[in-house]
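[Discussion] Sanity-checking designs against the backbone

I'm trying to build intuition for which residues belong where. Below is a structure token string of 118 positions. I'd appreciate it if someone posts a full sequence so I can compare it with mine line by line.
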């Protein structure tokens, strides 16, 4: 079914408000390794987003591990156990923490929720 002009106009208006386009220029010699890698993936956009999200999650994991190392009621309450659990699950999903560390941290949050600290 062909798109009407009104639909095209509405979609264009929506995309102008919600979509950010980022272009990357790569020198074919200097960045041939990057170009070759991108040529091997089905979705360049998806691949790049996954890499960036992984780095964001690693940064968050480092912050979380710092917090985990010096737990106090104030620190946990300022973030919230639900947020921490969500982050821990994302870290595990992205392979940034081992199964053992995931279980340890989830068990810790569960005990913390039940304890007098919360």
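Best answer:
Here's mine. Compare freely.
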């Amino acid at each position: 079914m062909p798109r009407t002009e009104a639909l095209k106009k509405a979609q264009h208006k929506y995309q102008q408000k919600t979509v950010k386009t980022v272009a990357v220029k790569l020198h074919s010699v200097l960045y041939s390794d990057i170009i070759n890698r991108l040529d091997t993936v089905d979705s360049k956009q998806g691949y790049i987003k996954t890499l960036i999200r992984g780095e964001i999650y690693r940064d968050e994991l480092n912050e979380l591990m710092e917090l985990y190392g010096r737990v106090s009621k104030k620190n946990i309450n300022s973030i919230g156990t639900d947020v921490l659990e969500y982050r821990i699950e994302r870290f595990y999903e992205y392979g940034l923490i081992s199964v053992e560390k995931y279980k340890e941290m989830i068990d810790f949050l569960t005990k913390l929720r039940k304890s007098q600290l919360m």
